[in-house]
Structure formats: structure tokens, C-alpha cells
Amino acid sequence: MPSISTGLPVPHPTRSYWQSVPSALDKHQSVQHLPASCDILIIGGGYAGAATAYHLLKSAASRNTRPSVVLLEARGACSGATGRNGGHLRPDLTSAPVLLSERYGPRAAAAVAQFEMDHLAAIAQFVAEEDVDCDLTEATSFDVFTTPEQAAAARERHDLLRKEPAFAGLLAAVGLYAGDDAPDRTGVRDAKAYFCSPAAHLSPYKLTMGLLSRALELGLCLKTHTPVLSILEDADDASRADEAAAAEDDEDVRVRPRCHRITTPQGAITATKIVVATNAYTAALLPEYAAAIVPCKGLACHIAAASPSSPPLPRLPTSSLCIRVQQGPLSGYTYLVQRADGSVVAGGAHHTYKQTDPASWYGTVDDAGLIEPAWRYYCDGPPGFAARALVGWVPRTRTCVDHVWTGIMGYSADSLPHVGAAPGRDGVFVLAGFHGHGMPVAYLAAKGVAEMVWEGKTYEETGLPAVYKTSQERLMPRYDDILGA
Ligand SMILES: Cc1cc2nc3c(=O)[nH]c(=O)nc-3n(C[C@H](O)[C@H](O)[C@H](O)COP(=O)(O)OP(=O)(O)OC[C@H]3O[C@@H](n4cnc5c(N)ncnc54)[C@H](O)[C@@H]3O)c2cc1C
Q1: Is the pTM of this model over 0.85?
Q2: Are residues 287 and 299 in the same domain?
Q3: Which residue among 99, 194, 365, 482 is buried most deeply as judged by most CB within 10 Å?
């Protein structure tokens, strides 16, 4: 088994298409010097950290309270997986639910699928209410099967889920089609069958900058380029014990809340509550998460017209695709969104490296380098990936791959995110391990975390899916969905 590196984000990462025009918040410093203390410290300036800050401050404002909230980000704002992803906001209604049903029962699986579905409306509402421009586009997503065996397995999964009453409502939104016209219907040359289901796509970078900018308006203190090096257990335990003893004798004596000391290269800060939203990098700060959340690398690219004088790129039947690939024993997929200008963001190609070269992607935090076989899959040509895979995309349409990048995902041993109070760490909350599928999960999970942190709700009171709850048991994983799957 390849070793796992649990370091901090590396300098000079590859730059994604989404990040090609840096936001004004890229290097934002709300204050020059780190404040000495705050009520709530959020670590990580990606989608999860930004959404936590937004929900915390929005809810506090509605209650006329104003906690001091500081967000520390190791590199530029949204420089992690969020700024380098495929742009899909795509609830999984047909794949993960089967596995989750087997493990936790159909009701728990349906709760997860419904939670993901709820993100479509929740993100649309955020974008409309806060007037955020992030290219949000609703789409019917096609999950395309390219071999008869895949098509048969999809039918089997669909039949299985249809037998479960818990899925009745959700599956009403899903269609399964098979037939010789599948290539024309989907735009995928080798299509044999496909699921269609509701989804959306967007610029994850602009969405996250929108969350950060609204949170800043509500009072967030954001410091980018400030890596957290350690979270120290309460340095003040002895004096708190004295206070607790005194409080027993005198009811006017208050015990100060437990504080955490967080160190950075720019000094230390104490905080009453901490939200660790570092996804792939969680084990660098909370080593007990090393087996549960493993940093894993993925690759994506942007395919555009070769020059302004090239013919317009063909429009696909839908702007959200997942193309399943099977080459002998090697399986993988390409996820793809088509942008308004016809260009395409595509990524994946796991079948080119995942099984054959685990060291190239498993247990690494290096998003400064590419994954060569995946890079070749998308960039080699002519004819090039688009012409090979898509109907009507012939080499004469003259495409070029103008951005290729990698990103580090927090793969979770049991495929589920870790959300809630970190076991054994008073006042520390975790929101991480999105398993390469965080867009329809992290926004509302962050809302639940904000409710736990600031409103004092229990995990159960937030209404988050029960199986997302982080626990001591999940830190010693029963499943290996990363290398084992
Ligand atoms: C190539 C690729 C394609 C993907 N495609 C999709 C997709 O289409 N749809 C989908 O749903 N998901 C996709 N994902 C996954 C998705 O991007 C993630 O699930 C999601 O972005 C996780 O958000 P996050 O905020 O938890 O993590 P991140 O965006 O990684 O944010 C974590 C942040 O924490 C910072 N950090 C880490 N350690 C420290 C520290 N010690 N101190 C301070 N800051 C620290 C990092 O720099 C980073 O900015 C993809 C991921 C990749 C890499």
C-alpha cells in the first residue's frame, strides 16, 4: 500500500481554469496582525470554510449577536479542491444510494440523497438572495454507460432502489434510458444507456468568493496565506480547574470557557470554538483522522476553441455529463460540464492511473504536479479527447486544452463526510472528507455546523444526515472505499 503524506498545502499549485482571473479576495488580509483571540476560528478558506463563516454570521446577525469569527487560509482564498474542481453540483441519486442502503438501510441512504437534492434549491436561493454571480446553470445531468455490462448493472441498481419506498419521491426525478439512439440523445459516442437526473453547474471559485465576500460584509476577519500549524489543547486547564473549584463555593464566580491555542507562522491566536474545514489536510492538524480522511489527487482540464477564428464548438444535448469508462478490468469516468461559451471542463480519467499507479494519486498533497496518464488522456491528440468521446466533435472543430490542473480531495474511508464535534476535543468541530463530491454536501452541512457551534444545537437537532456524524468509531474505519473500491 502506498504511504500517506499528511502535510499542509504545498506552495505554487497548478492554476485551474476557474482561478485564471483571480478574485480581489485572493490574498485578502482583513487585518495586518493576527488578533490575539476570537470566539470562533475557522481553518480553511474553501467552500466548506466559507459556507461555515457565512452561515455563522448570517444567523448571528439575525439574532442581533456578533461573535468574532476569524478564518485562516494557508494559501490564497479558494486555492484548494474547491477552486480546482469540475464545477458539478450534482446530487447522486443512483450510485452511492445503493451502497449506503446496503450498509445503513434505505432510510439513511434516502436521507443522504434528499440532503444532496436540497442543495439545488439552497444554492439557487443563496445566489438569488445575495446576488452572487457564479454562472449557476440548472441542467439535467446524464450519467452515461458505455458498455452493455455497465448498462445492465445500472438497470439492476435502478430496479433495486425502486423497490424501496424511501426512494419513491427521489426516483420520480430520475429516468433510465437505453437504446441505439443513446449516442444522439447524450452526445456521447459510445453511449449504451443513461440515467438522467436534476443537477446544476457553476464556477465553484466564484461561488466561494461570493460566500466569503458576504461573510466579510457581516464582520468576518479573513486572513489568507496564514497556515495553521497546530491546535494546542487548552493551555489554561490548571487555572480553569481553580475557577471551577471556586465556582462551587461562590455562584458569582464564572468558569471561563475552554480555550484553544492555534499557532501559525504569524503568531498564535486563542479561540473558544474551532471549525476545522481543511478537507484533505485534516490529519495534519488532527492526526486521529489519518485513517479516516486520506488526501487524494485528481485532475481536470478546460477544453476551448483553438482560436477566436475557429468554428463554434458544438452544443451538447446537456451541459452536465458523466461518462463511465471500462477498459478490461480498469474502470473510471469523465465528468464534464459545458459552459455558456461552448467550452468544456472535464476531469477524471481514473481508469488511466487509479488501479495501475496508486502512488500517483493516493496519500499525496502535491497539487503542484499533474497525473501524467490522465493528462495524456485529455491532452494527447489529434483527434483529442473531445473528438474521441463526443458526437460531432471532430478534429476540424479545432479544440485546444488551455488549462490542466490537479487538486487534492479528502477521500473518506467509508465514502461519507465527517461532520460535527471532533471526538475527544472539546469545542473543536470538523467539516471534511467530502470524497470528491462536496458541492451538494458542504453548504448545508456547514449550516448544521454553524448551528452546533453558535446556537449550541446537538448534531441530531440540526437535521443533518445521521451517517455524516463524525465519531470515534469512524476514525477506525470498517471500510476501505478508497483503495478497496
Ligand atoms: C479535480 C477535482 C474535481 C472535482 N470535481 C467535483 C465536482 O465536479 N463536484 C463536486 O461535488 N466535487 C468535486 N470535487 C470535490 C470538491 O471540490 C470538494 O469536495 C470540495 O471542494 C471540498 O471543499 P472544502 O472546502 O472542504 O475543501 P478545499 O476547497 O480543499 O478547502 C480546504 C482549504 O483548507 C486550506 N487548509 C488546509 N490546511 C490548512 C491549514 N493547516 N491552515 C489553513 N488552511 C488550511 C486549504 O488550503 C484549502 O483552501 C472535485 C475535486 C477535485 C480535486
Answers
A1: yes
A2: no
A3: 194
